[in-house]
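ugh ok fine here u go
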Amino acid sequence: MLATTTVLASTQGWWTHPWLIYLIRRSAYFIASLVLLVTLSFLLVQLIPGDPARVSAGEMASPEVVEARRVELGLDRPLIIQYLSFWRGLFTADLGVSYNSRLPVIDVILARAPATLELALAAVALVLVIAVPLGLAFGALTRGERRRGVEAGFTAVSAILAVIPEFLAGVLLVYAFAVSSQLLPVAGRSGLSSYILPVIALSLGPSAALTRIVRAETLTVLEQGYIRTARSKRMGPIRLYGRHVLPNLLTSTFTIGGLLLGGMIAGTVLVENVFAWPGLGTTIVDSIQDKDYPLVQAIIIFYGAVVLLINLVVDVLLILLDPRTALDKS
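structure:
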């Protein structure tokens, strides 16, 4: 009897564990957000002025050809049937055919997505490499209200850099390093040198913003009692910051880094068009201009799904890094 009670208690404890509850709730939020994203993307075509069948058939097509194209695209069916068919296409990776290239939409996305993801991942890696050491350094230099001049300079410069739009940063970099000095390629994706300017343009603002956050977190950690204890033991700065300060920054840094990655993926739309980068950013702008509705729908869903997935993965990894996260959010 005692053994049975113990098993039941352990089973109930497993089902009511805060981690599991949080994961279920977070997964439900992800699914609901994804459903909303797909629904809004579907309605987008319905709200855009004009006739998709006419766009697909061509402006010079006869009414008979346009009507045949409408039937072929399924636009003659009730809206709810079109919506369910749209979902079925998502599950079967059948997102339709591009009006412009006549290629399957999924093939266009698979061909262009790697360039966009490479650009975003390279930018977020650069952000972390720059922001974490700089934030730690400026936090150490200005702790205890020391070096007010350094703090004022850091605050002013980082605030200016943080608000520079990616598009403007890209234009300035193109003029400085590609047009005036011709040190780097101005457009395209050919070789490592072609990554330098778009990655810098994409990471400049986020680097400044994350550096400010890391510095603020560093100042908070340096005021903790265990840091004062470590200092009283005359612990060297490398060991102090590497063993005690940096690990306590990982949670907040990782959280902001994940959010920055999602924002950078969205920001690639502007940067790619500045540097003629052959990714989804340039593709969606061209698709909107060409009224290529199936491709626009698919790219919007791709961008949104990637951002939602990144947020989900970051939340799950935060639980692994700091189990108290699940307890706080339960």
